[in-house]
Amino acid sequence: THVGVILVAAGSGTRLRAAQPKAFVRVAGHTLLEHAVARAFEAADTTQIVVVAPASHLVEAGALASAHPRAADVTVVAGGAERTHSVAAGLAALHDDIGVVLVHDAARCLAPAGLFDRLVEAVRTGHDAVVPGLAVADTIKQVDASGQVVATPDRSTLRAIQTPQAFTRHVLADAHASGVEATDDAALVERLGTTVLVVDGDELAFKVTTPTDLERAERILGG
Ligand code: C5P
What is the sign, positive or negative, of the torsion defined by CA atoms of 21, 26, 27, 31? Predict the structure, then answer.
C-alpha cells in the first residue's frame, strides 16, 4: 500500500511577523515549504504529497513544487480557516491507492526522512495511529481560565507531540468525518477510541513559530 503525505501549509504564521504566510518564508535560500517537500520525498515510501496552501498562494505553491524532480507526484489544494479544515482538504485530494497517510506541518520543515520512515514502519506493523513525541524538559501545569493551577501531571508521563503523524487512511478519514476540530490529528483519532502509539520524535522536527525558530533553522542548515 502506498504512502501519502498531507503537508499543511495554509496557516498565516502571524507569530513569525513575516510579510508572507509562514510556509513561504525563506531559510538558507529556500522556502519552508520546499524544505519540507524535499524531506518528505527523501522518505522511502512517499508516493504522493498533497500541499495544502493558502487560497491566495496556490500558484506560488505550485511553482515551488514544480521545481522538485518529483513535481508530478505533488498535488496542491487550498486550505481552510482552521488546521483541521486544511487537513480535511488534503485528505480529499489523496490518490485512491494511498493506504497510509502522514499528516505533517510545513512549519516543521526540518523533520528528517528517517522520522517519516519510522512512523510508516510502525503503521505497517499493525498500529493505526502513530505520532512522534519528545520528553518534556519543563514541568507542565494545567490551569483554569483565571490562571490558577488545576493539576500538575507527573512529567515522566508527558510527551511533546510533533508531526509527521501517521495513520491508516480509513482511521484518519473516520476521525475527520466527525467534524470536530483539534490542534492535531491524533486527538481526533483518540476521540474515536482508537489507540494512538507515541514513538521517539526528533529534535529536528521542531515547529518554526517565532523569529528565533527561524534563526535556529538557518543555523542548522549552515546559513
Ligand atoms: O499555527 P500552527 O503553527 O499550529 O500551524 C501548524 C501547521 O498547520 C502549519 O504548517 C500551518 O501552515 C498549518 N495550518 C493550515 N491551515 C490553517 C492553520 C494552520 O494548514 N488554517
Answer: positive
Cβ atoms 46, 145 nearer than 8 A: no
H or E, element range at 215: helix 211-220
Quick check: 104 and 166 in contact, CB under 8 A?
no
Ligand 1 neighbourhood includes 23 CB (under 6 angstroms): yes
33, 107 in Cβ contact below 8 A? no
Is the CB of 106 inside a 6 Å radius of any atom of ligand 1? yes
pLDDT of res. 223: 64
As a residue count, the chain comes to 223
- 16 Cα to the center of ligand 1, angstroms: 12
69-81 pLDDT, tens digit per residue, is 999 999 999 999 9
CATH classification at residue 78: 3.90.550.10
Residue nearest (by alpha carbon) to ligand 1 atom 14: 11
Domain membership of residue 215 as a residue range: 2-220
Instruction: Answer yes or no: are the C-beta atoms of 74 and 49 closer than 8 Å.
Output: yes
CA-nearest residue, atom 4 of ligand 1: 183
Q: Residue 34 carries which DSSP code?
A: H
Q: Is the CB of 185 under 6 A from ligand 1?
A: no
Give the mean pLDDT of 148-170: 98
Overall domain count for the chain: 1
